[in-house]
Design a protein that fits this description.
The protein is mainly α. It has one domain: Arp2/3 complex 21 kDa subunit ARPC3 (Orthogonal Bundle), CATH 1.10.1760. It has 6 helices and no strands. Helix 1 packs across helix 3 and helix 2 crosses helix 6. The longest helix is centred in the last third of the chain and has 25 residues. It is globular and about 45 Å long. The chain starts with a helix and ends in an 11-residue tail after the last helix.
């Protein structure tokens, strides 16, 4: 099941840039699979899935160890840590967790840009990226919630009660 979820997340990650939207912004559709994995199988499996998704997607795109790879690594690292922290310490629903994930993913990407370019000026991208993270986080969180409800996850598990 985890392997199938990994394949689905790689496919969503691979085709995400093809969906029209704001320049440079992506919907983060692979986050849907990460959230589903978190709620169905737990945090360890979500961490493994996210790490493998970045590695496999980078290999497929031919950007392993390039700027895009490092931006993905930092983004996934920050968002995964945020998801684990917020899920453990708050009663956020998958939608709230998804928005936090999107916000921290973008923060991680900006830190990657600052580190790679050795320029604090990249911080000016942060407000634009955070602004785009809220609607995309809401969208991916809502889709995740619909899928989890379809799997008949308990409202208590999803912090909906």
């Amino acid at each position: 099941m985890i392997t199938m979820l990994l394949a689905m997340s790689v496919i969503l990650h691979y085709f995400d840039p093809a969906i029209p939207g704001a320049p440079g912004a992506k919907f983060g559709l692979a986050n849907i699979i990460g959230l589903i994995t978190l709620y169905l199988f737990g945090s360890k499996d979500m961490v493994k899935l996210n790490a493998m998704r970045v590695l496999l997607s980078s290999l497929l795109r031919g950007i392993l160890l390039g700027i895009g790879f490092w931006m993905s690594v930092f983004g996934v690292l920050f968002s995964t840590l945020a998801v684990l922290l917020f899920k453990k310490t708050t009663k956020m629903s998958p939608i709230g967790i998804s928005v936090a994930s999107a916000l921290f993913h973008n923060i991680g990407q900006v830190f990657a840009l600052i580190y790679i370019n050795k320029s604090i000026g990249m911080i000016y991208w942060l407000p634009i990226m955070l602004f785009s993270a809220i609607p995309t986080g809401l969208l991916t969180g809502y889709v995740s919630l619909l899928v989890l409800k379809r799997f008949r996850c308990s409202p208590k598990l999803l912090n909906l009660d």
